[in-house]
Write a structure and sequence with these properties.
The protein is of the alpha/beta class. The protein contains 19 helices and 20 strands.
Length: 631
């Protein structure tokens, strides 16, 4: 059954055509991903479907009785208390509850026919209240509050006093509490941490209605969607499957289009060559038949429907990373870091050892101290205790969440040339690849949006020379084509990478280890995000295992032993890593001296004996390291 059908939808903003004769169908129960570059009209489409923007032309048909719920990117409920915002989602049900309470109070005072009528009204309203889910309102509210991490302390605060991220979570909670037949969600994953993202994906999979979501979170789109609509040139193209499936299908389709285009071009070239030959032969032999035949082919050529050359690549940022050579085997070593603010301790003995060429993602709950740790590494904060040591040859490129520039009054062009000296022509060619074209390069950087600032800073990073990159939420403000270009550049970057990100898809593409900041300490997991998340879920499952009585006591003791064992394991791993690093350096030195020994047989024999003693020691330590990693 079709929940929503759109036919010939056209929408202008002033003279700009945003939606051009767009048509689409969404079926009941569909999970729809809506994708396309920034500015293609995705949000405008949702606002028109939610009846918040007028359409200029076209028809929109909803299934009879279907209710549409819409989540805006930036919800605004003014001075309303958060409790009132959330309870507005079931205002009618709460009104029924109040009416039932009034009837209950009055039943004891009525007699005869008045009592009979009141009892009938009470029974009817009680049935309606039950069907509306009135008896599980608080359960629904608690479930969504916990899933989106909205504490009870927020409920009596004015909505306007919340941070942007808190407002987004409250707006999402309100929309989900409404339980509409069709959910239209515009960037629902903004400001959600990893636990809330996983909760939302599970919630939407179980949701009884239809869901359509605009999102740059490709992991989320893969988890929730069974249909993908791509908005391109003002129209909607439908693809079956989630985001990754859509990408594969689109690439196959473009390659097929390219083959058809190339075949037509060959046919056109052959026809044009035939026309040229026929005219030449007609002129040479003064034969009208050749000219008529050429004219006939020419008419066929004119009537041929021309196939446009397909665009095989997106118009996106073209990134390239240069390396400044090696940054030393131990690129970064942090020991026993302690740091906090007043009563809030963020780091409690955190340790981190980053080797050359490693690619690490730093994850953790919102507020756990990830950005604070990066500020410590950058020297913008000083640890209360502990040490931070960068390799002397480390040349670090930084991307902060809030990008600022030395002179906010400079133009984009001047700002770029300040850090990357080159001619104006060279700079403008590079900036064009980052979508700063024509007169845009003369914009003042102080007037740039968050996304434009990130693009400009990335442009500086890509054309600087670094061997270490530290990136704080690098995909914020980027559309999907720009994210994919950044992924490709990072995959080719030969240096060391440390980044904070909530983008699970991006993490999977870019790293070989995940470091979780939890309760003030850093815990390393080998592999990508999926490997980390599986290990984390198993750990949480073990912690939630039910216990009781003597079993509880035994389990408590077991947990204490496990905690001790875990700490011992971490210490042993750190010691092994330190030993291996030292022994490998020693082995390298011995091999070099052995190569330089030349004809000095006595020295060579001595060095060879030392090497033979060291090699099994390293092998044994590596085997133990692997055992501990798998434990």
């Amino acid at each position: 059954m079709i929940d929503l059908a759109v036919n010939g939808l056209t929408k202008y903003f002033g003279a700009e055509l945003v939606l051009d004769n767009l048509s689409m169908e969404i079926h009941q129960g569909d999970r729809v991903a809506v994708v396309g570059p920034n500015g293609c009209g995705k949000t405008t489409l949702f606002r028109v479907l939610a009846n918040l923007e007028p359409k200029d032309e076209g028809d929109i048909h909803l299934r009879r009785g279907a209710i549409v719920g819409y989540l805006a990117q930036t919800p605004d409920y003014g001075q309303q208390l958060v409790a009132d915002v959330l309870q507005a989602s079931f205002r009618e049900t709460l009104a029924m509850q109040a009416k039932l309470q009034q009837l209950e109070f009055s039943l004891g005072k009525l007699t005869g026919s008045e009592l009979d009528r009141a009892l009938e009204e009470y029974a009817s309203m009680q049935t309606a209240f039950e069907l509306a889910g009135g008896y599980c309102l608080q359960e629904r509210l608690n479930r969504i509050q916990q899933g989106l991490k909205i504490p009870d302390g927020f409920l009596q605060r004015p909505f306007s006093q919340l941070s942007g991220g808190e407002q987004s979570r409250v707006g999402l909670a309100k929309t989900l509490l409404q339980e509409p037949d069709i959910l239209l969600l515009d960037e629902p994953t903004n400001h959600l941490d990893l636990d809330s993202l996983a909760w939302l994906e599970d919630f939407l999979r179980q949701y009884e209605g239809t869901v359509a979501a605009i999102s740059h979170d490709r992991y989320f789109l893969d988890a929730m969607a069974n249909v993908t609509f791509e908005i391109q040139n003002g129209q909607a193209v439908s693809w079956s499957g989630n985001y990754s499936r859509f990408r594969l299908q689109k690439q196959e389709h473009l390659l097929q289009q390219q083959a058809v285009y190339e075949n037509q071009q060959k046919k056109v070239a052959a026809m044009e060559a035939t026309i040229k030959k026929l005219r030449m032969w007609g002129a040479q032999g003064d034969n009208e038949k050749f000219f008529k035949r050429a004219a006939s082919i020419e008419k066929r050529l004119e009537k041929m429907e021309t196939i446009e050359r397909p665009k095989l690549s997106e118009d996106s940022v073209a990134l390239r990373l240069d390396s400044a050579g090696r940054a030393g085997k131990d690129t970064l070593v942090c020991d026993d870091l302690h740091f906090g603010y007043e009563q809030l301790a963020l780091l409690r003995g955190a340790a981190l050892h980053v080797r050359w060429g490693e690619r690490l993602a730093l994850v953790g709950e919102n507020g756990s101290g990830k950005t604070t740790l990066l500020r410590l590494l950058q020297g913008l904060e000083t640890p209360h205790k502990g040490s931070i040591r960068w390799a002397s040859s480390a040349k670090v490129g930084w991307l902060d969440q809030m990008v600022t520039f030395a002179d906010e009054n400079h133009s984009i062009l001047d700002c770029f040339r300040d850090t990357c000296p080159m001619t104006e022509g060279q700079a403008r060619n590079i900036l064009a690849k980052f979508l700063f074209r024509s007169q845009d390069v003369f914009k003042t950087v102080g007037n740039l949006s968050g996304g434009e600032r990130s693009r400009l800073r990335l442009c500086q990073l890509m054309h600087g020379v670094y061997n270490v990159l530290v990136l704080d939420e690098p995909t914020n403000h980027l559309d999907i084509p720009a994210m994919e270009a950044l992924e490709e550049a990072l995959q080719e970057f030969p240096g060391t990478l440390l980044m904070v990100s909530h983008d699970r898809y991006f993490i999977n593409k870019s790293v070989n280890a995940v470091v979780e900041l939890r309760q003030g300490r850093l815990h390393r997991y080998l592999g990508d995000f999926d490997a980390y998340w599986q290990a984390r879920q198993e750990r949480l499952k073990d912690q939630r295992a039910p216990t009781g009585g003597q079993e509880s006591t035994a389990h408590s003791r077991s947990s204490q032993r496990a905690t001790v064992s875990s700490r011992q394991r971490e210490r042993e791993l750190e010691q092994l890593e330190s030993d291996l690093s030292r022994w490998e350096d020693e082995l390298t030195r011995l091999r070099q001296e052995l190569a330089d020994a030349g004809s000095d047989a006595e020295k060579a024999q001595k060095l060879f004996a030392q090497q033979k003693l060291l090699e099994p020691q390293i092998e044994e330590a590596m085997e133990r390291w692997l055992e501990l990693q798998d434990a």
